[in-house]
Specification:
Length: 265
């Protein structure tokens, strides 16, 4: 991976954070409307309870939530804290990428990728689906961008998509054959293929290991806290996204170290 660019002016940092927060506001629209198949542009943003349009001065990312004290100006219905959370998460992602990779194409394309991770993860949490409208274009964009990327070669991108999707597809088919029920949706298969397309096949290794480990812990805790013999399926998409982000911010070094152990005496 590229080293971060040094001496970035503070105005660039401020612009990146502000732009990230603004994009996060749009991601909230995507998270809410994509599962319903609605337009992302019309109607304009409105309160889901009373339907009143949200005025521009009430739609300032992060800030408006606190100025309104977390309530709709018109009907006083509570606004989900998820809205400023997504905006803050997107803004932090923009700043972190700028610090890690510097100002350039790599940062831009990875920011688009992280936006896809955020939208897919929150939709998966709400509906236990990962829409094809995110994964299919994401796979294509990941492969196309690899032709000009300095971090991932196109061969690694294509292999990453094949390996990522192939491994989870085998797991999904095997689970269905053995347990006679679906244990993993095809949305997760395409999601890992998208991660592999953007980050390469090495990222698939860390993503699978980390997501499986964290997912197992969360599943165990959920089972223990529920006090029942079974529990609702846990969306796997957020754990895959966590593994992908970990790889982007230092995980590649860990994977390289791990793979080097195989060649040592």
């Amino acid at each position: 991976m590229n080293s971060p660019e040094q001496g970035i002016p503070w105005l660039i940092w401020a612009g990146a954070v502000a732009a990230g927060a603004a994009v996060g506001s749009f991601l909230n629209v995507c998270i809410y409307r994509l599962p319903m198949g609605g337009s992302l542009l019309r109607p304009r943003s409105h309160c889901p309870k009373c339907g009143s349009p949200i005025q521009p001065y009430d739609n300032i990312p992060i800030i408006s939530f606190f100025l309104l004290r977390g309530r709709c100006r018109n009907c006083k219905e509570r606004i989900s804290p998820r809205y400023p959370l997504v905006e803050a998460l997107t803004a932090a992602s923009a700043a972190a990428l700028l610090y890690r990779y510097g100002l350039g194409f790599e940062t831009f394309i990875l920011f688009v990728f992280i936006c896809g991770l955020i939208v897919a993860s929150f939709i998966d949490l709400d509906h236990q689906i990962i829409p094809d409208v995110i994964t299919y274009p994401g796979i294509a964009l990941g492969v196309i961008s690899s032709f000009v990327s300095q971090s991932v070669q196109w061969r690694d991108s294509v292999l990453g998509a094949i390996v990522g999707g192939g491994i989870l597809l085998i797991v999904a088919i095997g689970f269905r054959l053995i347990r006679k029920k679906e244990g993993m949706g095809l949305g997760d298969v395409k999601f890992l293929a998208m991660i592999g397309a953007f980050l390469g096949w090495k990222a698939v290794i860390l993503t699978l290991v980390l997501s499986s480990f964290v997912g197992a812990i969360v599943g165990y805790l959920s089972l223990r806290l529920s006090g029942k013999g079974s529990h609702e399926p846990i969306p796997f998409g957020p754990f895959l996204a966590l593994g992908a982000v970990a790889y982007m911010f230092g995980g590649e070094s860990f994977v390289d170290w791990y793979l080097s152990l195989g060649g040592s005496p």
